[in-house]
Specification:
Blueprint: H1 5-8, E1 15-19, H2 24-37, E2 40-45, H3 57-60, E3 65-69, H4 75-85, E4 89-92, H5 99-104, H6 106-128, E5 136-142, H7 167-186, E6 189-195, E7 197-199, H8 208-217, E8 222-225, E9 231-236, H9 237-250, E10 256-259, E11 264-266, H10 267-281, E12 292-295, H11 310-316, H12 324-337, H13 339-351
Parallel strand pairs: 1-2, 1-4, 2-3, 4-5, 5-6, 6-10, 7-9, 8-12
Antiparallel strand pairs: 9-11
The structure holds nicotinamide-adenine-dinucleotide (NAD).
């Protein structure tokens, strides 16, 4: 499956077409590629509700950065971007990414995550045809495609079987399979990474850590799904961005990489950790754990995800720089220092109905 020759020929930096670069992870990747890697970046993003263009303001003035507002499903747009910029790599992060939204409205997830990936693969295939060099197609995916672990199961690895349980994870699993097939059938230079839950600055306030943090700041109930026993493996978004750059540069063609922070935590323990940190950072609101409230669980809520990141560590020499405790504290401080960004967004989220109960209602 692997092609070791492809590892050495990638130079650092290069020219990268990033999809979804105004999202939470895409923006961290672009900051890293521009600031630390000397890369040229073209960012193709549709600017959906989840986009945060502010997250790349710090690098947007660089002459190595260009932004294009558009849809990954627009084949002629993608083809023209490939012709105009001739990137070495397509880093594909654009997606619908919120499980609760996928339960209420799966069709956008299928259209963006499956058809969008298909459109990109076809555009790259057509562009590569007749050229002597191939683009690298780096597909960014999730550990959720592997389904749910029991408390005693070994963590997911590169060889774990696919068993997606939500419309979101099913759409990501389908896109992973397309990427693999386009590599095997058409010879595209593909690589896929499957990562655990990310957290950090600029995460849209509908995901668990920002939701809890903001509720704690505003002295509102902290809504824990079910009994809070579900376990997730957490990785700081900037550690993920560094891993993605390594996979892009040095990953083997056709290989998948499982990326995680070795930081399994029960949701209730994450929420308690947020409360304890907030007691230090905002003693006037202490004790914040008095605000913890248990709410109706998400239908089909996977019990446990965990990643064994041994392969990416050994093969690419990647090491996370943050522990969960250091990364969480840094993140909470960031949310406290950047209230003007999330205040309006959180207000909008609050006035909407609870998402993700469609299957149970
Ligand atoms: N957030 C996590 O914890 C996590 C973990 C592992 C993997 N992933 C994967 O990483 C990728 C990025 O996740 P994220 O959390 O940054 O997502 P996000 O929801 O924060 O951002 C997605 C971005 O994609 C853009 N987008 C959506 N549809 C588009 C389209 N049709 N055309 C162009 N742009 C479009 C949005 O405008 C947004 O900027 C996703 O593929 C996701 O499945 C996320």
């Amino acid at each position: 499956m692997g092609d070791p020759s492809s590892r050495s020929r990638r130079r650092e930096g290069g020219k990268v077409l990033v999809t979804g670069g105004c999202g939470f992870i895409g923006s961290a990747v672009i900051r890293h590629l521009i600031r630390d890697k000397g890369a040229e970046v073209v960012n193709l993003d549709l600017l959906t509700y989840a986009a945060t263009p502010e997250a790349i303001e710090s690098v947007a003035q660089s002459d190595r950065y260009a932004f294009v507002k558009g849809d990954i499903r627009d084949r002629s747009l993608v083809a023209s971007l490939l012709e105009e910029h001739e990137p070495d790599t397509v880093m594909h992060l654009a997606a619908e990414s919120h499980v609760d939204r996928s339960i209420d409205g799966p069709s956008t997830f299928l259209e963006t995550n499956i058809m969008g990936t298909f459109t990109l693969l076809e555009a790259v295939r057509a562009f590569d045809a007749g050229r002597s060099s191939r683009r690298r197609f780096h597909h960014i995916s999730t550990d959720e495609v592997f389904g749910s672990l029991s408390p005693t199961d070994a963590p997911f690895t590169e060889t774990s079987p696919y068993q997606p349980n939500s419309p979101y994870s099913a759409s990501k699993a389908a896109s992973d399979h397309l990427v693999r097939a386009w590599g095997e059938t058409y010879g595209l230079d593909v690589v896929t990474s499957n990562c655990s839950n990310n957290y950090g600055p600029w995460q849209f306030p509908e995901k668990m850590i920002p939701v809890m943090t903001i509720a704690a700041v505003e002295a509102r109930p902290l809504p824990v799904y079910g009994t809070g026993e579900n376990v997730r493996d957490w990785l700081h978004v900037e550690d993920h961005a560094r891993a993605l750059a390594l996979v892009m540069e040095k990953g083997r063609t056709g290989q998948t990489y499982a990326i995680g922070g070795n930081a399994e935590r029960r949701n209730i323990d994450v929420v308690r950790a947020i409360c304890a940190a907030m007691d230090d950072l905002r003693p006037e609101g202490a004790p914040h754990d008095r605000l913890i409230t248990f709410v109706t669980d998400r239908p089909g809520h996977d019990l446990r995800y965990a990643i064994d990141p041994e392969f990416v560590r050994k093969e690419l020499g990647w090491e996370p720089q943050e522990t969960f405790e250091s990364g969480l504290k840094q993140t909470l401080r960031w949310y406290l220092d950047n209230q003007e960004w999330w205040l309006g967004l959180a207000e909008k989220a609050r006035t909407g109905a609870r998402l993700g109960l469609a299957a149970g209602s």
